[in-house]
Amino acid sequence: MKTFEANGCDKSLKLDIQSSFKHIDGMIEKVLNYLKQEVRCFDSFEINVILRELLTNAIKHGNKNDESKKVLFVLRCYENRLQFRIKDEGQGFDPVKELNEKSDILTPHGMGMTIITSLGYHLEYDQEENYLVATKKVIDKNNILEGNNYEPE
Amino acid sequence: MSGFDVSRNDVDQISVLYLSGFLDAHTTPKFEHALQTLIKEDRVKVIVNLKDLDYISSAGLGVFMGFIEEIREKGGDIKLSNLSPKVFKVFDLLGFPALYQIFDAEDEAKTKFNETK
């Protein structure tokens, strides 16, 4: 699937953490430091929002808070899209059910995923490698503020 | 890098909780504890001042939802104040303004509580 190809990826960062909420801050700090060095313009609040939701989801629902398991994170900056890839050691999930569910204050399950998509990210599941993939169209690789909404090719 | 803290100030029947830092899955127990303590003390007119809150995740939003029913059943409410535009955006994405009163300033929330004494 074209969306998951690394070809055309100009900048990337790969990190992993033990599966515990206490490690989330440290990982986000590393990502923000990387972006400060590599990218001219980005929204640190939005990066925080997206990464905390993705990492929490992987730790809680994927790895069931099992600290002996790991969460793998990959950031990829393409010419005009930004992509976060998150892999846990869980059993995977049904993308049709989990990724298309819209939640709100009255139907709270899946609120994190709704926040992510509301901020312009397209969510996909790379079933072969068990990665949850969040992709957003950006202005260019040095300015990862929002471009037009990303649609997979 | 982040951290989270909650402090409290009681004025007459109203209790104000001041949240600072990052409210996410890791830090929600502290906020839950503060709300549980208020309910135990039967102080259910609650303003949550978010002036110094840097970030809130879906787990943090879930705490507001987890307590509102009980607090309203006891005749109280949770009102929010002083949200930064970015924090407000997260609340707004999930429709919170339809169920919670959100004020620019803490005093406006206090006035609203006092109107409904």
Would you give an account of this structure?
Chain A is of the alpha+beta class. Chain A has one domain (11-145): Heat Shock Protein 90 (2-Layer Sandwich). Chain A contains 4 helices and 6 strands, in the order βααββααβββ. In chain A, strands 1, 2, 3, 4, 5 and 6 form a 6-stranded antiparallel sheet that branches. With 117 residues, chain B is α/β, with parallel strands linked by helices. Chain B has one domain: STAS domain (Transcription Regulator spoIIAA, 2-Layer Sandwich), CATH 3.30.750. A 5-stranded mixed sheet of chain B has the order 1-2-3-4-5, with helices on both faces. In chain B, α1 runs parallel beside α2. The longest helix of chain B is centred in the middle third of the chain and has 16 residues, at 58-73. The chains are: A alpha+beta (153), B alpha/beta (117).
Write the layout of secondary structure elements.
The complex is a heterodimer of chains A (about 150) and B (about 120).
Chain A: E1 9-18, H1 24-38, H2 44-62, E2 70-78, E3 81-87, H3 95-99, H4 111-118, E4 122-126, E5 131-140, E6 143-146
Antiparallel strand pairs in A: 1-2, 2-3, 3-5, 4-5, 5-6
Chain B: E1 4-11, E2 14-23, H1 28-40, E3 45-56, H2 58-73, E4 77-81, H3 85-93, E5 102-103, H4 106-115
Parallel strand pairs in B: 2-3, 3-4, 4-5
Antiparallel strand pairs in B: 1-2
Helix pairs in contact in B: 1-2
* Fraction of residues in H or I helices of chain B: 40-55%
Taken as a percent bin, the fraction of beta residues of chain A is 25-35%
Q: What number is the mean pLDDT of chain A?
A: 83
**CATH topology term of chain A:** Heat Shock Protein 90
The two chains with the largest interface, and their residue counts, are:
A-B, 26 and 22 residues
The residue fraction in helices of chain A comes out at 25-40%
Number of strands of chain B: 5
The CATH architecture of chain B: 2-Layer Sandwich
* The CATH topology of chain B: Transcription Regulator spoIIAA
Could you give the order of the helices and strands of chain A?
A: EHHEEHHEEE
Number of domains of chain A: 1
CATH homologous superfamily caption of chain A: Histidine kinase-like ATPase, C-terminal domain
Taken from the alpha-carbon principal axes, the silhouette of chain A is globular
